[in-house]
Specification:
The chain is mainly α and 362 residues long. The chain is built from 13 helices and no strands. The chain has one domain: Up-down Bundle (Growth Hormone, Chain: A), CATH 1.20.1250. Helix content is 80%, strand content 0%.
Amino acid sequence: MRTVPASTLSFVGSLGLSLTVALGLACVWLAGVIGARWSSLIGIALFGASTLVGSFTVSNIGGLFMSAALYGLGGSLMFTMSNILPLQWFNDRLGTANGLVKLGGGIGATVMALVVQQLIDKVGIAWAFRVMALTSLASGIPTALLIRERAPPSSSSIDMSLFRNLTFFLLFVAGFIGIFALYIPSFFLPTIATSIGLSSTTSAGVMACYNACMALGRLASGIACDKLGSTNMLLLTMALNAVTMLAIWSVASTLAVLIVFAALNGIANGAFFVTMPTAIGRLLGPHAAPAGIGMAITGWSVGDLLGNPIPGFLIATTHADRATSIVPYRAAIFYAGGTAAISTALVLVARLRMDANLIKKS
């Protein structure tokens, strides 16, 4: 695949991520029809199929696009269920519940960042994909069978009247813009690490640090949502995301600085996926929250699809992928930091609409 441009490869990953959120509303509706358990089982089956297909198409760009599409379909079902099920069981501790749910994904990502590289080195990319598929099916199917709903959600998955709530609208737009920057570090950290002279093993270690801190950010932010306020934590999360990109990543020319960035930005990245649904859930209440969260998640699809190809194009244009320093990557980094800063400003306006006292729990 060396002849395939970085922007094209990043688009493959972006397709899967985009479908994961683009189908959020459809998944909320499906859960209302067949239930969360069956929705989750279908999701894990499609997810496993995606990696199996990928194992046979590692040298075929068309096959990888098919694998990404299956990943998006399965991932959307699983991700949506993880966001709407806690609403049925928790209120005062909704943030902690969301944090614990998302922590599982963070732990898995941390382990896989290390294991996959070892598998690739020992058995090759194709068999690494197959091991991932079998592992996900073996662990996911029994877990899905244990899912129990307190009250079946309504099959109604969209309520356009929610946009009349200006605070919800601001949070929706903040997520729509902010997601453009969110996956850029996880996609391009390994490339940048290699460019500044780090080995593939060290690069995998940097990604493991990033993923571990994502897991920490998910749990810690969930607990903090219940203690300090979910919208307050969302604002802090978005601010940390923007600052770390603009002030740290742009000068990360050594392993030490890159690890500092990976740790802090990983925390912010993980926290976003807990603080945003928790803030919307508490803003709208349990009845309207599933539709509101589904609408917000679906709004992320454009950013998931285009967020990584844009910096991929910037990297290709500046020939940063052949560079030996961080400098040529700054165009892509500033693009990411700029979108994160705009999103932060929107969350700030939403928070001020709720209460002008930023110290107050909200």
